[in-house]
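Example record for the data management plan.
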Amino acid sequence: MDYRSAGVDIDKGLAFVDIIKRKTSNRPSYVLDGIGGFASLISISQYKDPVLVSSTDGVGTKLLIAQAVNIHNTVGIDLVAMGVNDVIVYGAKPLFFLDYIACGRLNLEVMEKVIEGIVAGCNEAECPLVGGETAEMPDFYPEDRYDLAGFAVGIVERDSIIDGKNIEDGDVIVGIPSSGLHSNGFSLVRRFIRDKGLSLEGVYPPLDKPLYEELLTPTRIYWRQIKTLLESGVKVKGIAHITGGGMVDNIPRILPEGLYAHIDSKAIPLPPIFTFINERLKLPKEEMYRTFNMGIGMVLIADRKEADKIDSILKETIIIGKIESGKRGVVIE
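Corresponding structural encoding:
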């Protein structure tokens, strides 16, 4: 008996590292060492008073949809998005990204597709993939299953941190649209697909594409929009990434005590996937807004004048509410 017969193929793991190296050959000058060493070396000497901003996240059970239909080149984008979007809400530039891939058996064809997605996400986020870990774990996972985790690190000058402390009564809430479900709410979605006997290949009104295509639409990465605003000099007081918990749980994370977000749901164009879900589940509005992003992936808070500037710069934004005095939280109308 040897390690390979026990389910771990070291040679295949090394071959996978070579695949990753080929796909990540370009790296910024502040990355001092490439993939393959014991750790990654990052220089931050160009910053005066740098603060590192870190986040770790996964893709959740959206992975089961990808694995069910054998489409693996989008979930890597989701992985990068979930980490990077959390980092940039502080005004931080994405500095580097690492991944963790765990699987029952290392399938190089599948994992190459996953890495292609991660690299595509990193390119969109202008954030190099500098390392990671691939764990082949027989008996722990079924042979055809894998899980992903990502680690994003950003950097911001201390005096440029966006933290919500200056948010005031009367400020405006600006939403940037999502691309769909992003990477949250999939355990509920998978359950009702199963319980109602729906097919992932089916096309169900009001959707105009197979259900699996809608579900696997990658999470938007908002770095380029935030970067554009930062470079423009617009004064943004707070930014919230709308992930698990929806607007109901995520917007209060950046609000000072004594303020709440008043959301006008009628101002938000509802993507078809949420209509599809709500028509079948009949969930209360509050529950929908606490489970899903409901069409808004990122929320910005600014005063009225700055909010108008945001809209003129990004074009796609929607004013979805305002900040009012009261118990900290969110009111959905």
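Summary line stored alongside the record: The chain has eleven helices and ten strands.
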